[in-house]
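PROTEIN–LIGAND DATA SHEET

This sheet pairs a single protein chain with one bound small molecule, fe (ii) ion, given as SMILES. Inputs appear in the order they were entered. The predicted three-dimensional arrangement of chain and ligand is reported afterwards as a C-alpha coordinate string under its own label.
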Amino acid sequence: MKIKGFTEGFGGEITDLDLAEEGTLETAQAVQDVMDHYGVAVIRDQRITDQQQIAFSRLFGQLEFSPHFGRGDKDLVRMKFPELFDVSNLDEHDNILPDTDRRRVYRAANLMWHADSTFQPHGAGYSLLSARIVPASGADTQFADMRAAYDALSASMRERIEGMVVEHSTFYSRSLVGYQFTEEELKRRTATRQFLVQTHPRSGRRSLMVGSHASHVVGLPVEEGRALLKELGEFATQERFVYTHKWKVGDLLLWDNRCTMHRATPFDDTAERRDLRRTTVVGDLPLVPA
Ligand SMILES: [Fe+2]
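PREDICTION REPORTED AS:
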Protein backbone atom coordinates (compact mmCIF):
# COMPACT_ATOMS: atom_id res chain seq x y z
CA MET A 1 0.00 0.00 0.00
CA LYS A 2 0.94 3.62 -0.59
CA ILE A 3 -0.21 6.81 1.08
CA LYS A 4 -0.74 10.25 -0.39
CA GLY A 5 -1.59 13.06 2.04
CA PHE A 6 -4.25 15.59 1.05
CA THR A 7 -2.51 18.11 3.26
CA GLU A 8 0.67 17.86 5.24
CA GLY A 9 -0.98 16.52 8.35
CA PHE A 10 -4.67 15.80 7.90
CA GLY A 11 -6.46 13.38 5.60
CA GLY A 12 -4.83 11.00 3.17
CA GLU A 13 -5.56 8.46 0.47
CA ILE A 14 -4.32 4.89 0.71
CA THR A 15 -3.72 3.29 -2.68
CA ASP A 16 -2.52 -0.07 -3.94
CA LEU A 17 -4.61 -1.96 -1.45
CA ASP A 18 -7.45 -4.42 -1.99
CA LEU A 19 -9.05 -5.23 1.34
CA ALA A 20 -11.03 -8.12 -0.10
CA GLU A 21 -7.64 -9.81 -0.65
CA GLU A 22 -5.38 -8.15 1.90
CA GLY A 23 -7.57 -7.45 4.93
CA THR A 24 -4.95 -8.86 7.29
CA LEU A 25 -3.69 -7.84 10.72
CA GLU A 26 -0.50 -6.58 9.08
CA THR A 27 -2.56 -4.32 6.80
CA ALA A 28 -4.61 -3.06 9.75
CA GLN A 29 -1.43 -2.16 11.63
CA ALA A 30 -0.07 -0.28 8.63
CA VAL A 31 -3.39 1.56 8.23
CA GLN A 32 -3.31 2.43 11.93
CA ASP A 33 0.13 4.03 11.50
CA VAL A 34 -1.31 6.13 8.68
CA MET A 35 -4.26 7.13 10.89
CA ASP A 36 -1.93 8.25 13.69
CA HIS A 37 -0.56 10.88 11.37
CA TYR A 38 -3.50 11.78 9.12
CA GLY A 39 -6.53 11.19 11.36
CA VAL A 40 -8.72 10.40 8.31
CA ALA A 41 -7.98 8.12 5.36
CA VAL A 42 -9.84 7.01 2.26
CA ILE A 43 -9.33 3.77 0.40
CA ARG A 44 -11.09 3.87 -2.98
CA ASP A 45 -12.63 1.03 -4.99
CA GLN A 46 -13.11 -1.41 -2.15
CA ARG A 47 -15.94 -3.73 -3.23
CA ILE A 48 -16.21 -5.45 0.13
CA THR A 49 -19.08 -7.37 1.64
CA ASP A 50 -20.60 -6.62 5.05
CA GLN A 51 -18.70 -9.59 6.46
CA GLN A 52 -15.40 -8.37 5.03
CA GLN A 53 -15.97 -4.90 6.47
CA ILE A 54 -16.71 -6.36 9.90
CA ALA A 55 -13.75 -8.74 9.80
CA PHE A 56 -11.30 -5.99 8.83
CA SER A 57 -12.74 -3.57 11.41
CA ARG A 58 -12.32 -6.18 14.17
CA LEU A 59 -8.58 -6.13 13.61
CA PHE A 60 -8.57 -2.65 15.21
CA GLY A 61 -10.35 -3.80 18.36
CA GLN A 62 -13.72 -4.74 19.79
CA LEU A 63 -16.65 -3.39 17.76
CA GLU A 64 -19.68 -1.48 18.98
CA PHE A 65 -23.08 -3.04 18.48
CA SER A 66 -25.86 -0.94 17.04
CA PRO A 67 -28.20 0.00 19.92
CA HIS A 68 -31.18 -0.78 17.70
CA PHE A 69 -30.17 -4.30 16.79
CA GLY A 70 -32.31 -7.09 18.20
CA ARG A 71 -34.99 -4.73 19.48
CA GLY A 72 -37.20 -5.41 16.50
CA ASP A 73 -36.80 -1.84 15.27
CA LYS A 74 -37.84 -1.56 11.66
CA ASP A 75 -34.78 0.42 10.67
CA LEU A 76 -32.46 -2.46 11.50
CA VAL A 77 -34.07 -4.92 9.13
CA ARG A 78 -31.68 -3.87 6.39
CA MET A 79 -28.61 -4.60 8.50
CA LYS A 80 -27.95 -8.30 8.98
CA PHE A 81 -25.19 -7.92 11.59
CA PRO A 82 -25.26 -6.12 14.95
CA GLU A 83 -21.88 -4.50 14.20
CA LEU A 84 -23.30 -2.55 11.25
CA PHE A 85 -24.76 0.93 11.66
CA ASP A 86 -27.18 1.90 8.92
CA VAL A 87 -26.11 5.26 7.47
CA SER A 88 -28.79 5.61 4.83
CA ASN A 89 -32.07 7.34 4.03
CA LEU A 90 -33.78 4.02 3.35
CA ASP A 91 -36.48 2.11 5.17
CA GLU A 92 -36.78 -1.62 5.82
CA HIS A 93 -37.94 -2.20 2.21
CA ASP A 94 -35.01 -0.22 0.76
CA ASN A 95 -37.37 2.63 -0.10
CA ILE A 96 -36.54 6.26 0.60
CA LEU A 97 -37.86 7.27 4.02
CA PRO A 98 -41.04 9.31 3.75
CA ASP A 99 -41.03 12.93 4.89
CA THR A 100 -43.00 12.09 7.99
CA ASP A 101 -40.83 9.23 9.23
CA ARG A 102 -39.29 10.00 12.64
CA ARG A 103 -36.11 8.13 11.67
CA ARG A 104 -35.46 10.98 9.23
CA VAL A 105 -35.30 13.43 12.14
CA TYR A 106 -33.05 11.10 14.13
CA ARG A 107 -30.64 10.78 11.23
CA ALA A 108 -30.69 14.55 10.62
CA ALA A 109 -28.49 14.80 13.71
CA ASN A 110 -25.62 13.61 11.49
CA LEU A 111 -25.58 17.07 9.91
CA MET A 112 -24.14 18.48 13.15
CA TRP A 113 -20.43 18.29 13.93
CA HIS A 114 -19.65 15.39 16.27
CA ALA A 115 -17.34 12.49 17.01
CA ASP A 116 -19.03 9.10 17.17
CA SER A 117 -20.11 7.70 20.55
CA THR A 118 -18.61 10.38 22.79
CA PHE A 119 -21.70 9.62 24.93
CA GLN A 120 -20.27 6.15 25.64
CA PRO A 121 -17.95 5.84 28.65
CA HIS A 122 -14.87 5.12 26.54
CA GLY A 123 -16.04 6.91 23.39
CA ALA A 124 -15.12 5.40 20.05
CA GLY A 125 -11.79 4.68 18.41
CA TYR A 126 -11.92 4.29 14.64
CA SER A 127 -15.04 4.37 12.51
CA LEU A 128 -15.05 2.71 9.09
CA LEU A 129 -17.69 3.79 6.61
CA SER A 130 -18.31 1.97 3.36
CA ALA A 131 -20.22 3.50 0.43
CA ARG A 132 -22.68 1.25 -1.42
CA ILE A 133 -24.99 3.86 -3.00
CA VAL A 134 -24.20 7.57 -3.21
CA PRO A 135 -26.33 10.47 -4.48
CA ALA A 136 -25.27 12.42 -7.57
CA SER A 137 -24.53 15.54 -5.54
CA GLY A 138 -24.24 16.67 -1.92
CA ALA A 139 -24.01 14.21 0.96
CA ASP A 140 -20.31 14.87 1.48
CA THR A 141 -18.67 14.04 4.79
CA GLN A 142 -16.57 16.78 6.33
CA PHE A 143 -13.84 16.22 8.91
CA ALA A 144 -12.21 18.64 11.31
CA ASP A 145 -8.74 18.10 12.76
CA MET A 146 -9.19 18.58 16.49
CA ARG A 147 -5.43 18.28 17.08
CA ALA A 148 -4.54 21.17 14.78
CA ALA A 149 -7.41 23.15 16.30
CA TYR A 150 -6.08 22.55 19.81
CA ASP A 151 -2.56 23.52 18.74
CA ALA A 152 -3.91 26.78 17.28
CA LEU A 153 -5.70 27.88 20.47
CA SER A 154 -4.27 30.79 22.40
CA ALA A 155 -2.15 29.90 25.40
CA SER A 156 -4.72 31.50 27.68
CA MET A 157 -7.54 29.40 26.23
CA ARG A 158 -5.49 26.21 26.55
CA GLU A 159 -4.84 27.10 30.17
CA ARG A 160 -8.53 27.89 30.79
CA ILE A 161 -9.84 24.57 29.47
CA GLU A 162 -7.17 22.30 30.88
CA GLY A 163 -8.77 19.60 33.04
CA MET A 164 -12.32 20.69 32.18
CA VAL A 165 -14.94 17.93 32.09
CA VAL A 166 -17.90 17.88 29.71
CA GLU A 167 -21.10 15.88 29.93
CA HIS A 168 -22.03 14.11 26.68
CA SER A 169 -25.44 12.68 25.88
CA THR A 170 -27.20 11.50 22.75
CA PHE A 171 -30.39 12.82 24.30
CA TYR A 172 -28.96 16.30 24.19
CA SER A 173 -27.81 16.06 20.56
CA ARG A 174 -31.09 14.56 19.34
CA SER A 175 -33.09 17.20 21.18
CA LEU A 176 -31.20 19.81 19.13
CA VAL A 177 -32.83 18.49 15.94
CA GLY A 178 -36.29 18.30 17.48
CA TYR A 179 -36.40 14.54 17.91
CA GLN A 180 -39.33 13.46 20.09
CA PHE A 181 -38.26 10.68 22.42
CA THR A 182 -40.60 7.85 23.28
CA GLU A 183 -41.23 6.92 26.92
CA GLU A 184 -39.19 3.77 26.37
CA GLU A 185 -36.25 5.76 25.01
CA LEU A 186 -36.37 8.20 27.90
CA LYS A 187 -36.07 5.31 30.35
CA ARG A 188 -32.76 4.41 28.74
CA ARG A 189 -31.47 7.98 29.02
CA THR A 190 -27.80 8.13 29.98
CA ALA A 191 -24.97 10.62 29.98
CA THR A 192 -21.24 10.27 30.37
CA ARG A 193 -18.34 12.58 31.14
CA GLN A 194 -15.31 13.24 28.99
CA PHE A 195 -12.30 15.48 29.35
CA LEU A 196 -12.51 18.49 27.07
CA VAL A 197 -8.83 18.08 26.19
CA GLN A 198 -7.78 14.58 25.22
CA THR A 199 -4.31 13.11 24.71
CA HIS A 200 -4.09 10.54 21.96
CA PRO A 201 -2.79 7.23 23.35
CA ARG A 202 -0.70 6.45 20.26
CA SER A 203 0.46 9.77 18.82
CA GLY A 204 0.57 11.63 22.15
CA ARG A 205 -0.99 14.67 20.46
CA ARG A 206 -3.56 16.70 22.33
CA SER A 207 -6.96 17.54 20.89
CA LEU A 208 -10.33 19.10 21.65
CA MET A 209 -13.36 16.93 22.30
CA VAL A 210 -16.56 18.88 21.71
CA GLY A 211 -19.40 18.34 19.20
CA SER A 212 -23.15 17.92 19.22
CA HIS A 213 -23.29 15.34 22.02
CA ALA A 214 -21.39 17.72 24.34
CA SER A 215 -24.14 19.10 26.54
CA HIS A 216 -22.43 21.27 29.13
CA VAL A 217 -19.27 21.80 31.13
CA VAL A 218 -19.33 20.22 34.56
CA GLY A 219 -18.96 22.86 37.28
CA LEU A 220 -19.87 25.85 35.09
CA PRO A 221 -23.32 27.44 34.77
CA VAL A 222 -24.98 25.56 31.87
CA GLU A 223 -25.25 28.57 29.54
CA GLU A 224 -21.68 29.67 30.19
CA GLY A 225 -20.41 26.17 29.48
CA ARG A 226 -22.49 25.90 26.32
CA ALA A 227 -21.15 29.22 25.08
CA LEU A 228 -17.61 27.98 25.61
CA LEU A 229 -18.33 24.67 23.80
CA LYS A 230 -19.88 26.60 20.93
CA GLU A 231 -16.91 28.93 20.69
CA LEU A 232 -14.46 26.01 20.64
CA GLY A 233 -16.57 24.06 18.13
CA GLU A 234 -16.73 27.01 15.75
CA PHE A 235 -13.02 27.64 16.12
CA ALA A 236 -12.17 23.99 15.40
CA THR A 237 -14.33 23.74 12.27
CA GLN A 238 -12.86 26.68 10.39
CA GLU A 239 -11.99 25.85 6.81
CA ARG A 240 -8.28 25.60 7.57
CA PHE A 241 -8.91 22.56 9.80
CA VAL A 242 -11.45 20.84 7.54
CA TYR A 243 -11.23 18.13 4.87
CA THR A 244 -14.34 17.50 2.74
CA HIS A 245 -14.80 14.01 1.35
CA LYS A 246 -16.77 13.58 -1.88
CA TRP A 247 -18.05 10.03 -1.96
CA LYS A 248 -17.79 7.48 -4.73
CA VAL A 249 -19.29 4.01 -4.59
CA GLY A 250 -16.65 1.64 -3.20
CA ASP A 251 -14.97 4.21 -0.95
CA LEU A 252 -14.00 3.00 2.48
CA LEU A 253 -13.36 5.93 4.76
CA LEU A 254 -11.66 5.55 8.12
CA TRP A 255 -11.37 8.18 10.83
CA ASP A 256 -10.18 8.39 14.40
CA ASN A 257 -12.94 9.69 16.67
CA ARG A 258 -10.42 10.47 19.40
CA CYS A 259 -8.97 13.40 17.45
CA THR A 260 -11.45 14.36 14.71
CA MET A 261 -15.04 15.51 14.31
CA HIS A 262 -17.25 14.98 11.29
CA ARG A 263 -20.62 15.88 9.82
CA ALA A 264 -22.64 15.05 6.74
CA THR A 265 -23.69 17.76 4.30
CA PRO A 266 -27.27 17.86 2.97
CA PHE A 267 -28.56 16.29 -0.24
CA ASP A 268 -31.93 15.80 -1.89
CA ASP A 269 -32.83 12.96 0.44
CA THR A 270 -36.47 12.72 -0.57
CA ALA A 271 -35.48 11.94 -4.18
CA GLU A 272 -32.01 10.34 -4.08
CA ARG A 273 -30.79 7.22 -2.34
CA ARG A 274 -27.80 6.96 -0.06
CA ASP A 275 -26.58 3.72 1.50
CA LEU A 276 -23.46 3.69 3.64
CA ARG A 277 -22.57 1.22 6.37
CA ARG A 278 -20.50 1.98 9.41
CA THR A 279 -18.50 -0.17 11.78
CA THR A 280 -17.09 1.41 14.92
CA VAL A 281 -14.30 0.31 17.22
CA VAL A 282 -14.96 0.71 20.95
CA GLY A 283 -12.82 3.56 22.26
CA ASP A 284 -10.24 3.88 24.99
CA LEU A 285 -10.91 7.37 26.35
CA PRO A 286 -9.80 7.66 29.97
CA LEU A 287 -12.64 7.47 32.48
CA VAL A 288 -13.25 10.74 34.28
CA PRO A 289 -12.95 10.31 38.05
CA ALA A 290 -16.25 11.05 39.80
FE1 LIG B 1 -20.98 10.06 12.98
